[in-house]
Every structure is written in C-alpha cells, then in structure tokens.
Amino acid sequence: MSLLQINKLFISFGGIRALAGVDFHVEDGEILTVIGPNGSGKTTLFNCISGVYRPTGGEIFFRGESILGLSPDTIAAKGIARTFQNLRLFMHMDVLDNLLLGRHVKFRKNPLQAVLRIRTEEVKHREFVEEIIDFLDLQAYRQARVSDCPYGVQKRVELGRALALEPTLLLLDEPIAGLTSEEKDETAYRITEIRGRFKTTILLVEHDLRIASRLADRMVAFESGLEIAQGTPEEVQRDPNVIRAYLGEESEQKRN
Amino acid sequence: MDNFLQYLVSGLSIGSLYSLVAIGLVVIYRSNRILNFAHGDVTTAGTFFAFFMLSSNFSFAVSAVAALVFGALIAMAFYFCILVPAQRRDATQLGQIILTVGLGLILQGAVQYFGGTEPQSFPFPLSEYIVYKIGVVSLSQLSLGTLAASLLSCFLFYLLVQKTRLGLAMRATSENLPAAQTLGIPTRRILAISWGLAAGLGVVAGLFLAPALLLDPFFMLEPFLKGFAAAILGGLNSLPGAIVGGLILGVAEALTGGFVSIAFKNSLAFIVIILVLLVRPEGLLGEEFKERV
User: Fold this and answer.
1) pLDDT of amino acid A3
2) In this complex, is the C-beta atom of B278 within 8 Å of any C-beta atom belonging to chain A?
C-alpha cells in the first residue's frame, strides 16, 4: 500500500480546470519531486492534499484512509505537514516560538500537570525543537523576531516548523526558490538528510530541474493539470512530452 | 488637586469598563478582521438575562455566571451558524460586518419584545450610595467594585492569552490563520472560543454598567460606542492598547466633566481621540497590518 494515493483528482475554479484528473502515488520513505511549468497545478495539488482546497472530484488516500474533504488542521494532525511557496510564518513571534507552535498538537491535554507546573512533557518538546534548531543551523536566530530575519533564514524556520510536527509525509512547495546558490545547495543537502534523520517521506515541488533531479527518487511531471510523465529523474527528463512542455515544440522552419 | 484626584479615580473606574468592551471588539477584530457591531447588543441580551434570573429569585452570583454563559453562547452560535457558512460562500469583509449589524438589530428587537422598553433599575449587590473615603478621594462601593472586577477580568484575560496553550493557539490563529491550520490547530474551534470570550467580557461590563445607568434595551449603546472609540484609540489590533485606550477615554471624560462642563464630557473625550489619531493613525499601541502576497 502506498503512503499517499491520489486517484483522478479534479478541481476547477470558475471555468479553469486546475487539476484535470491527476493520478499518482507516493511510496513510503521516498522523495518524490513534482515538476512542471507555471500554472500546471503543482501548488493546487498541494492545497488539495493539505485540505486548503476541496477537490471537485477524485480520491485522496493517506495510509489507506480517505482524507478528502477533511479540514486542514485534521489533516495536519494525521501527520501531513507542509511549507508554503510564499512563506506563512508568525512574523511577530520569535523563531523559537514559531518552532514550538509546531509542537502544539503534540501536547497532551492534562490540566492537572499544568497547574502543578510539572514540566517533563514541555522539556521533551523543547529538546526536540533544539534538535531542529541544531539541524537547521538556527542557533544565532533563536530569539530573533521572524520578520527581522533574512529570507533564507525564514525559509529554514518554516521548514523547521513543519519538521516540529514530526510528519509522516512532508510537503515542500518550492523549498529552494529565491535562495542564493549556496543556500540552495545547503537546503538540497538538508532535504536528503531529513529523510534519514526524521524518517519522513517527502513530496516536493521544484522548478530547478538540476536540483529536482538530484534529490528525487522518482519524478512526476505536470502540465495543464495533468501528470504527463512519471518515473526516475532520467526517464522523466528524456520524456518527449516533458521536453515539449518545458522547451516548446520544435518550430516548423527549423525542422525543414 | 483634590478634585483632580477624585475625577481621575472615577474616570479610571468608568474607563476600565470601556476597556472591557474594547477588548471584546479587539479580540474579534484581530482574529476575524471584522468589526463586531453586535457587541453592545449581545452584552445587552446577557445583562437582561441576568435581570430575568434575578427577578425569578436566583442569587446574584448564579445569575451573573448564567448571563456570561448566555452572552457567550449567543456569540458562538452566531459564529458557527451564520459567520462560518457566510465565509464558506466567500462573503466579503464588509458583508460579514453587515451580518453583525443584522445580529445586533435582531437582538435589539428580541430584548424589546421580552424585556420591554421601560427603563428599569437593576438590582445589584453593590450600592452606589455607600461611599468610602480613601484619603481625599471618595469612592462608591459600586465604582470600587467596578474597578476591581474589570482589572481582575483584564488580568485573567491577559494570563489566558499570554500564558496558556489556548492563548498561544489564539495568538497564532489571529496572526496567521492558514499557518495555524497547517500546524494542526483547530482554528474554527479557537475562533468560536474567541467569540465566546469577547462576549463574556462584554457582559461583565454590562453587569456593572446596568446599576449605574438604568436598564433598557439601549443602555449599552453609549458604552459600546465609547468602547469602540477606546479600541481605535489604542490601536484596533492591540489588546494592551484596548485597555490603555479605555482608561484614557474614561479619565478624559471625567476630567472634562469635572473641570469644563458636563455638557462637553463626550465631545472633549472624542476630540482627544481625533488628536491622537491625527498624530498616530494606527492608534497608540497599534501596528499596521502588512501582508506579503
């Protein structure tokens, strides 16, 4: 059984079909990269999986259980965490609080312990967050207000916050877009590390083909709301449909 | 000087009630980005509920608690049954604000129907006529109780927002709803709780205002407008701002009433607000909302 199974997923906004019957699955433990030109439905797909949009048709199964139509918070609680293409952080809070908020759902409700100030549980959560801070190299920014941090750091904070949820499946929406080339390499390296260290399956959307193919175990290419190719990075890159979608058709004149 | 102190203290007492009303408005504005025009009417309904309970010989404590719960339930029902469906159909912010106006009118009608329009005196355990002298300042039992009750409410609310997990979830939800959702925070439940808390704080203010004014279906209109003004003065999205705004408004009012003329009481208080907003359009402690799209 695949970790995430998507069958014939449809969604349209007004007259525009953003997803036109998408079919694919994510295996447990793999890194699957979704590529495709702008407007091909990659982010829409993420929004459907995480419950932000309600698809008009199709099925989504997570660990064999349908999650279609559930609210975003219920889906998050089931073990699917995500980052956003445009960051969605708590800009007025410091970095540490942003990460701790990721642990929010993990707190067991026990008013008695809260009253008696028994902090064993909180200590456990803080330790986990410290581990993330180390992993993402955020020590220097621990107490800084997120709005004051540089963009690259904000991206790391968002990644860290998603990791704080200890997700089974991590959705990363363009995790390296807008970074410097040095930061890009760092982040790419970290993404492969995440799988080993946090035992997380990763589904990511990426524009940068070079890094996308370096990271991916498998790739899915999208165009106009449909998957047009699936397979290993090499297979997908050689696929004529993908070449056409990315580079356009060879012109008539050239061919003659 | 003695007079000044006297006016200052009575200003703080009435101002603390404006603060309570203002907090209720700010809580809703921060988390839903809408102005709740039904706030005064929810408060009125809650206070009338206490009045009915008292008339049926329930003790004051029981009636007060029941009134808080009643007010909170109205607000939560409004959120779940009207606002959420409206938001699902992509209601604009203006549309949602008009919905609160509608709720206000409905409640006003209901209160008139069940409670009548005659002003009635509200039985209250603290008296306006028992006066304590503290140094040069004399304070009625009621004003003292008002000050104590509203400061305590503000303090408890502060603890809730700043020190509890629920408060953290409330802050996260009002700062960035989609982000809070993706962290597994049940934002709808959190927002419903915010509506309930806001209404509850309003009813506390209503219970202490009713004995000072007379109880009629419109008795909250002026305090509601003052609370609104206080919230804007403090900065609509700042909770400490709401408290500061309410206290400043109360003191400004009392000083004007005392030293200038009772007739100018309201005008001068609002002139102060206009002046402050000319200098700081976002309010005393407010921060502008910025969103990167």
Assistant:
1) 93
2) no
- End-to-end CA gap in chain B: 55
Residue B174 confidence (pLDDT) above 50: yes
From the list A81, A84, A92, the residue facing B175 with the nearest CB is A92
A122–chain B nearest CA distance, Å: 11
Q: What is the pTM of this model?
A: 0.84
Question: Cβ of A73 and B184 within 8 Å?
Answer: yes
List Cβ neighbours of A116 (8 Å cut-off, separation of 6 or more): none
B172 close to A (CB below 8 A): yes
The letter for the amino acid at A208 is: D
Q: Which of A32-46, A85-99, B267-281 has the lowest mean pLDDT?
A: B267-281
- How many angstroms separate the CA atoms of B155 and B163, rounded? 11
pLDDT of residue A16: 85
Instruction: Give the mean model confidence (pLDDT) for residues B127-136.
Output: 85
Give chain A's mean pLDDT. Answer: 88
**Residue A116: CB atoms within 10 Å:** 9
CB < 8 Å to B185, chain A? 73, 101, 104-105
Query: Contact A206/A101 with Cβ under 8 angstroms?
Result: no
Q: Alpha-carbon distance B172 to B178, whole Å?
A: 10
Work out the pLDDT band at A118, boundaries 50, 70, 90.
low
Parallel, antiparallel, or unpaired: how do β-strands A16-26 and A57-62 relate? Answer: unpaired
Cβ neighbors of A193 (< 8 A, separation 6 or more) are A135
Average pLDDT value for residue range B121-131: 86
Mutate to test the interface with B, among A67, A71, A90 (most CBs of B within 10 A): A90
State which H helix or E strand residue B150 sits in: helix B141-163
Contact B175 A102 (CB under 8 A): no
Is residue B271's pLDDT more than 60?
yes
Closest Cα in chain A to B163: A114
CATH class of residue range B2-279 = mainly alpha
The pair of structure tokens assigned to B141 is 């039992």
In chain B, what percentage of residues exceed pLDDT 90? 65
Tell me B83's DSSP state.
Answer: I
A50 and B293: CB-CB below 8 Å? no
The per-residue pLDDT for B293 is 42
Name, in order, each residue with C-beta under 8 angstroms of B255's C-beta and a sequence gap of 6 or more.
Answer: B4, B7, B8, B11
pLDDT confidence of B229, banded at 50, 70, 90?
very high
Q: With CB atoms and an 8 Å threshold, state whether B184 touches A92.
A: no
Question: Measured between CB atoms, does A156 come within 8 Å of chain B?
Answer: no
Map out the domains of chain A with their CATH numbers. 1-79+167-256 (3.40.50.300), 86-166 (no CATH)
pLDDT value of residue A112: 62
Where are the domains positioned within chain B? 2-279
Q: Tokens at residue B9, please?
A: 């203290």
Beta strand A57-62 pairing with A31-35: unpaired
With H, G, I as helix, E, B as strand and everything else as coil, classify residue A110: coil
